[in-house]
Amino acid sequence: MDAPVPLIVCALLAAGAMLLTNPRRRAWATVGALALAPILLVSSIWDTDQLHTLRDRPAFAVAAVVAGVVVLAALAALFDRRPALFPLAAALTIPFRIPIAVAGTTANLLVPLYLVVGAGALAYAVPRLRAEAVGRTYDAERRPGALEWLLAAALVLYAVQSWYSSDFDKALENVVFFYVPFALLFALLARLTWTRRLALQVLGVLVALALVFAGIGFVEYATRHLLLNPKVIASNQLESYFRVNSLFFDPNIYGRFLAIVMLGVATVLLWARRGRHAFVAIAVLAVLWAGLLLTLSQSSFAALLLGLAVLGGLRWNPRGALAAGLAIVAVGAIVVVAAPGAFHLELGDSKSADTATSGRYELVKGGLRLAGDRPLGGYGAGSFSREYRRAEKGSAERAVSASHTIPITIAAEQGVPGLLVYLGLLVAAFGTLCRGARADPLRAFVAAAFAALVLHTWSYAAFLEDPLTWALLGVGLALSLAAPPRRRVRSEPVAVAA
Questions:
Q1: 37, exposed or middle or buried, with CB in 10 Å at 0-12, 13-18, 19+?
Q2: Which residue intervals of 143-195 are DSSP H helices?
Q3: Least enclosed by CB within 10 Å: which of 218, 219, 311, 449?
Q4: In whole angstroms, what is the distance from residue 469 CA to residue 467 CA?
Q5: pLDDT tens digit sequence for 181-194
Q6: What is the pLDDT of residues 470-491, one digit of tens each?
């Protein structure tokens, strides 16, 4: 069997977990995707050094598998009895990445989140499969809408386009590590009933994590010592500034997380009834803003500003928010034109533009050339890094995983089909998330956070490879299916439901 075939089957199973309406078939698809993904991974890295201990010590390998199954089963039983614990556990584990060597490179993987998603998937599937054996039935699942179909299309298309990719290992890594488990996360979150209390508990977990991460970032800045990522450490030694990344491997991913959490706290502030809640929210925002400043992540600053503009428009006047946003953009453009030297930029000089954008200018140019060379089908899923180095004759040190602009990465790797699915997904996502957002703070937060994340992906990448994308879409879909919120009265603020 050709290598891409099992990968496509795995993607189809994950798509079935989102789309099938028959509870038994959906449960089987969920279990199938959950089982096949790690099998594909182990088979692809079986001969590598990281599995040397397991190959040479089969007893240890069996013990490790048994221990993992026991932990997974225990968590699944807990989530089955108390479903509200699943989103709390997902929020608690969503930022933590563990470095693992895969296909000759080191990938930072969300292993704790994978464990939670696996347990949640079993908590959903096992009761339905057991019910079939005893003759019980579950009500049919809701028919999928445009958002689910487009997410499934993005997942399956990516797996299909691995067939002709010049870097199949990268495509397999993305599907197995990101697309499949996050699709299951999306399906599980979309089935939950989101109450005000549950949403506030999830936000509380995220805020607590963000404050801890910010505290670690303050220590890093004070001691001028980073805990993780040799590349950032080396960069800090060569530059006049010092960037922190806390427990994240990249300052931009750290900044993205802080920006999303800050939007949640800002939602509490904007819809707060009591002054005490507002003061607490302001204090938290001050700490997180200081933490965000130390990342020096321009993409995170821009994402936060856009998210705040969306929140302001949904809370008060959309036209006023749009006008304010355009005014800020215009002022920024005037400042850049009037004083380009302040941004280390010489207008008309491509090298200066590349320096000012931390190398993104050349990446974008190279990505556009790749997309123009193969506009119909692209070079295949996961191929951007290899094809960019080949076309630009770059060294290994200039290796990149993406163009840092998601639409260009998609155009280069997947061509017109990928771009059409991506654009359709954005339209369906914003249409779903903005439904009722002006009358509900939680819906407003989800819409603003997703807008911020999309902007961040246009300057840093990692769209469907980020669990936050799938989590926001899952929560937003669940909210859109709930009873429509009551329209607020202009003179009376609404209590926070976020």
A1: buried
A2: 146-160, 168-174, 180-190
A3: 219
A4: 5
A5: 999 999 999 999 99
A6: 999 999 999 998 866 665 444 3
